Amino acid sequence: MDLTTFTTPADVDAPQGTGTVRAFMDKHFLHFNSRETVAAARAFEAHIDAGGKMMVTLAGAMSTAKLGQILARLIRADKVHAITCTGANLEEDLFNLLAYNEYEIIHDWRALSAADETALYERGMNRVTDTCIPETVMRHMERQLIDRWKQACDNNERKFEHEFLWDIFRDGKLEKHYQIDPANSWMLAAMEKNLPVYCPGWEDSTTGNMFAAAVFRKELPHHQCVKTGTEAMEHLMRWYLDNCGIAQSSNEGKPSVGFFQVGGGIAGDFPICAVPAIIQDLQRDDVPYWAYFAQISDAVTSYGGYSGAVPNEKITWGKLDAATPKFMIQSDATIVAPLIFAYVLGD
């Protein structure tokens, strides 16, 4: 199927959805960013239906924004095949799982004074826009993780960041502490599906800070139990080669891997570089570019503030092909991503 056909206006020869969300979007999202949103959703769906795989990247505070409620469904429906996210998104999905009832929502957060912010800090409430995460859940998880990291150091184990988190949830001992339906956790869904999860820059997250502090205090003997970012890149390159349609004869004729980017920054910049690394650094001329690209961002290309290059600029970096279906939606990801995911799910 020629995915480029999905760049036409949403009301021209468009497949009409039967779900309430799909039907509404098909009828009303006809121009500008709304048309681009529907076009990106249709191309996402067509890519998956044709046998392609999809990488989803999460920047910002998408887990605290509760994107996991619908992303978990997308993962369980086999419409997401790998995740790249910041350390904050990795851990905050699980903070939410364990402590949602202790979260505080601040409806008038724009009116907070410095004194108000200080009062939140002194109560151990860490603010993310309109949501305050209690420090207590972070310390609860810290105790679990340090024990697991110690065990790994003692046994010469080395794992990625998400694998240690999965380890402390896999045995079910934390289930009694769940404060939301576990079906709404994208990290648990990824664990169930054993999805590859990449977390570049993990060291700037709460759990990354905890790990560094534990080594500093000599509570952990060294840093080596957590695999490095370059190891993650090598793993991603191998995963891409296994899933881009060239590794096995059964994949012949299938599209390569798609790339759905929520926000910007390192969560998107890191994984998209796997393709030019394979083509240029490994000198593999048989490897396809990313087969689909969509990004939701409120950033604009001015004064170097836009990280990772806009879609056409990515062509010059060997990330996308001129014919790759490309979608750039400049809007709030907490509004647009759930709509696209719901569309793909047939809601």
Automatic annotation (TrEMBL):
Keywords: NAD. The keyword NAD applies. InterPro entries: Deoxyhypusine_synthase, Deoxyhypusine_synthase_sf, DHS-like_NAD/FAD-binding_dom. The keyword Nucleotide-binding does not apply. It comes from the Bacteria. Belongs to the deoxyhypusine synthase family. This is Deoxyhypusine synthase family protein. It comes from Natronomicrosphaera hydrolytica.
